[in-house]
Design a protein that fits this description.
Distance between the termini of chain A: 26 Å
Low-confidence stretches of chain B: 63-81, 219-249
Shape of chain A: globular
Mean pLDDT of chain B: 70
Order of helices and strands of chain A: HHHHHHHHEHHH
Largest interface: A-B, 59 and 68 residues
Largest sheet of chain A: none
Shape of chain B: elongated
Strand content of chain B: 5-15%
Oligomer: heterodimer
Largest sheet of chain B: 4 strands, mixed
Structural class of chain B: alpha+beta
Number of helices of chain A: 11
């Protein structure tokens, strides 16, 4: 890990007013507003709320935090990116990637966990039943989500091959589509049902399969409350994180940097 | 020969070196994941009993009413909230029973052929804390869809699906004391989401109940003591559970 890279990454994420405004609005104002409204009006929280306080919320926050991560300009914004400056000095590419990943994970995870804690506190103060283990699970899950999504985003941004970026962005959107509705079986259909329903089912199944493959979920709440520990979700998660980081370093190693890079 | 600079060794280190430990760990996890997927595929091909933590009980079943089922060509959509008198009677029975137990009614719209239903049964609905919340506050009824197996559902199941606008399985529906939808959770959600959904809805229903009691206090000549007695009795809990199962065959 390189402390200078970590410091400048944190500055880049935390001192940019536009990034802060986006994170504040999407990460805090919207979900907290929805929570307060639902508590006062006795309404159930929507799927949008579930998404914003879950993995999708983490992804939205990290999308902005990762901006400019692989840029070439040495003067990009406050505490901006400085790849030519770094890579014309004896700093290893892996140091750069791992330092960036760690800081972005910590910042993204902290913001998302803070949001979850505020939402849980609002619910609790208004009489909602919430246990310590549920809050603890939320916090751990948000940090784990941040670790995985930031690794995937770092890989996407550092690998400059257009085909790879197109596939990665498409996969992200397919994953996002799968998050808008949890796994279901469509009702009211006998064998050989309607074509549009079959197509929808196929799309949902495909997006959920892709989601499991590229961004596997670990349900910490299940892990800590079950008597029989299942290692499968953890294995999938760790495998994805380490692979993304290894490929991100390999992709950075292949790139050439010099002061005149544009 | 030029003298050797002691710092040259560290400067000669390539900046493109791959961290061996990371590569090794990534390879190990990848092999582990592929092996695990193989095991899971092998296990899924063998028949497995779904773990059930909630004890479902039966209610009197309504008979299959063939008149209420039409072929696809002659199907005319009925009014969404229209339920048969028999179904209305069953819903009223359920509501009375839940009121007697001081619990809320929780319907699970379930299909035996649905993988998300089976997964939810084995994960979220088997979670101890979710179970504790259900046992404490709810009277759970399972409404099993037989359309795929038998070609049609019993009238009670069809009516309940229409009334609560069910379009997918599994769906959890919590109803208020009038039998109207208080909250709906669609799909195989995680244990935490299910727990939060149940918890929020309990709070929401209790809030509504308190508001209604407050309105009654304003208009009812009865004493505050009597009313608070009603509130406390509606929030008490017990452990009985029931289920709606459609006729077999």
């Amino acid at each position: 890990m390189n402390s200078t890279i970590m410091k400048f990454t944190a500055m880049s994420a935390c001192l940019d007013p536009l990034k802060l405004l986006y994170v504040f609005m999407l990460g805090f104002v919207m979900p907290i507003g929805m929570k307060v409204a639902s508590m006062f009006h006795g309404a159930s929280d929507s799927q949008t709320f579930e998404m914003l306080t879950g993995k999708v919320g983490v992804a939205f926050v990290l999308m902005v935090l990762c901006l400019g991560l692989a840029g070439n300009s040495a003067t990009q914004g406050r505490g901006g990116e400085y790849l030519p400056l770094i890579f014309t000095r004896p700093v290893t590419r892996s140091e750069y990637v791992l330092s960036k990943w760690l800081v972005i994970t910590l910042i993204g995870g902290t913001l998302a966990a803070l949001q979850n804690i505020i939402v849980a506190a609002i619910g609790y103060s208004m009489g909602e039943v919430i246990t310590f283990s549920a809050v603890f699970s939320m916090i751990v899950e948000r940090f784990m989500d941040a670790g995985l999504i930031s690794a995937a985003m770092i890989l996407t941004m550092l690998n400059k091959k257009p085909a790879f970026q197109i596939v990665a962005i498409l996969s992200f959107y397919i994953w996002l589509a799968g998050q808008t509705i949890p796994p279901v079986s469509v009702a009211g259909m006998s064998a050989g049902g309607d074509l549009s329903i079959e197509a929808t089912k196929f799309m949902l199944s495909a997006s959920q399969y892709i989601a499991d493959l590229i961004l596997p979920t670990v349900n910490v709440y299940d892990l800590i409350s079950t008597k029989v520990l299942s290692l499968s979700p953890l294995l999938s998660y760790l495998s994805a994180v380490t692979l993304y980081l290894a490929f991100a370093i390999a992709s950075t190693n292949k790139r050439e940097f010099f002061y005149g890079t544009n | 020969m030029a003298p050797t600079n002691p710092e040259s060794k560290s400067n000669d280190r390539s900046t493109r070196v791959m961290p061996q430990a990371l590569v090794l760990v990534a390879a190990l996890f990848l092999v582990g994941r592929i092996t695990d997927i193989g095991f899971q595929l092998a296990r899924s091909s063998a028949p497995q009993a779904v773990q059930q933590s909630i004890q479902w009980h039966d209610l009197p079943e309504l008979t299959m009413d063939s008149n209420s089922f039409k072929t696809k060509q002659e199907f005319v959509p009925p009014p969404v909230l229209d339920v048969s008198p028999e179904t209305k009677q069953e819903i009223d029975k359920v509501l009375t029973l839940s009121r007697d137990q001081n619990k809320y009614v929780l319907y699970e719209f379930y299909a035996p052929w649905s993988d998300p239903c089976k997964k939810m049964e084995a994960t979220s609905l088997a979670n101890e804390q979710v179970n504790a919340l259900v046992e404490q506050h709810f009277m759970p009824f399972r409404v099993t869809d037989r359309l795929k197996q038998l070609g049609k559902n019993p009238r009670l199941v069809t009516d309940l699906q229409k009334k609560y606008r069910i379009f997918a399985f599994p769906t959890l529906v919590i109803v208020d004391e009038r039998g109207e939808t208080a909250a709906t959770l669609v799909g195989n959600c995680s244990s935490l989401t299910t727990y939060r959904f149940l918890s929020r809805t309990i709070h929401s229903l209790e809030q509504k109940s308190r508001a209604q009691q407050g309105t009654r206090i304003g208009s009812d000549p009865r004493s505050t003591h009597e009313i608070s007695g009603i509130v406390s009795s509606t929030t008490a809990s017990s452990n009985q559970t029931l289920a709606v199962e459609s006729p077999k065959g």
